[in-house]
Specification:
six-stranded mixed beta sheet, single chain, elongated, D-Maltodextrin-Binding Protein, domain 2, alpha/beta, 347 residues, 12 helices
Length: 347
């Protein structure tokens, strides 16, 4: 074989070896490359949301809110006793909870952790306005479920009286009776008093009667005393209907002729509701009915009246069923007076 033939042979053998090694390398790479298997899709475990216990059962009792700023043991024990009696009589699980202030109580009522509470009129108007309280029962305090306000003056002032004490009735409306106070100076009780400031101020505003800056006397009897001596103010306002500060023993002892010298110029109807029982709106009607019926039965007994009165530190003689409309007149006058309900929580 000549040299030219050898060269062709070597080139041919070299190409064969090249392809052998190339094939072997590709096979090795394929063997070393792991096979990727898609991961299995995990099925999520469903979240179990516990069903809330029905209101009124042991794990979710109806909560009644009571207020005592000084942890009065008499209030604490009677509040607990009132809840126990309701629970026993109705079969509804009921707990009492004590708060140090009405603001604290309302903070729990607004989120539904307190289901019922006894509320003062201005506190109720605030809670009702914000949709977390509905009045159902009204208390009888000193013989009346609602009370009013009266406008007084010294007899020497020359103001005309439109009130007949013999029949305890007024003889004209507010517009006619109170126009004579235009531009005059009043004696008020204090800026938080419904009958001694807020309601009469609203009535004067309602009838377009502009007055001078008033004198704050701090009490109903102080209004009477200021009018008796004259010169402090032209007229004054106090509570009416369930009593008359002119007849208080302390005033009569010092001023025996006060009834003749300080006279009633005009008086409202009983338009200020007493303390009420209110429910959180979502409380089922059937639960409300059972509790209301039992309270109406309990208040007919001496023991029931005592327990309820002592749990509230407020003398209660009777209860009656009401709804929010009993507050309509008061609500309008409070608005006209210009006071802010949020500043009067607890009143």
């Amino acid at each position: 074989m000549n040299s030219s033939s050898k060269n062709y042979l070597y080139r041919f053998l070299g190409l064969i070896l090249f392809f052998v090694f190339l094939f072997a390398g590709c096979s090795a790479i394929r063997q070393e490359t792991p096979t990727v298997t898609p991961e299995a899709t995990l099925t999520p475990i469903p979240t179990i949301t516990p069903t809330p216990e029905v209101l009124g059962l042991p794990k979710n009792p109806v909560v009644i809110g009571f207020v005592t700023s000084n942890q009065d043991p008499n209030i604490l024990s009677n509040a607990g006793e009132m809840a126990n009696r309701l629970e026993t009589n109705t079969g509804i699980s009921i707990d009492s909870k004590i708060f140090s202030s009405y603001r604290e109580l309302l903070g729990q009522m607004v989120v539904g952790r307190v289901h019922m509470a006894w509320l003062n009129p201005l506190t109720y108007l605030y809670a009702s306005k914000n949709n977390f309280a509905q009045a159902v029962l009204l208390t009888n305090h000193f013989g009346t479920f609602q009370y009013g306000t009266q406008f007084l003056a010294n007899i020497s002032s020359g103001f005309i009286s439109f009130y007949n004490p013999n029949v305890n009735q007024v003889t004209t409306d507010a517009t006619n009776a109170l126009q004579q106070f235009q531009g005059k100076r009043p004696c008020w009780v204090d800026a938080t008093s419904l009958s001694g400031y807020i309601v009469p101020k609203g009535i004067l505003a309602q009838n377009g009667i502009a007055i001078q800056e008033g004198v704050i006397t701090q009490s109903h009897t102080s209004v009477v005393r200021s009018l008796y001596v004259a010169g402090v103010c032209d007229f004054g306002v106090t509570y009416a209907t369930f009593g008359d500060p002119r007849t208080s023993s302390s005033v009569l002892q010092d001023l025996p002729d006060v009834m003749q010298r300080v006279i009633v110029i005009w008086q409202t109807d009983p338009i200020i509701p007493n303390l009420n029982l209110s429910f959180y709106p979502s409380v089922p009607e059937q639960l409300k009915e059972h509790i209301i019926i039992d309270l109406l039965l309990q208040i007919q007994t001496t023991e029931g009246r005592q327990i309820l009165s002592q749990s509230l530190n407020y003398e209660i003689e009777d209860l009656k069923i009401v709804d929010d409309t009993v507050y309509d007149t008061l609500r309008d006058l409070v608005t006209l007076s210009g006071v802010q309900l949020e500043d009067l929580i607890g009143k």
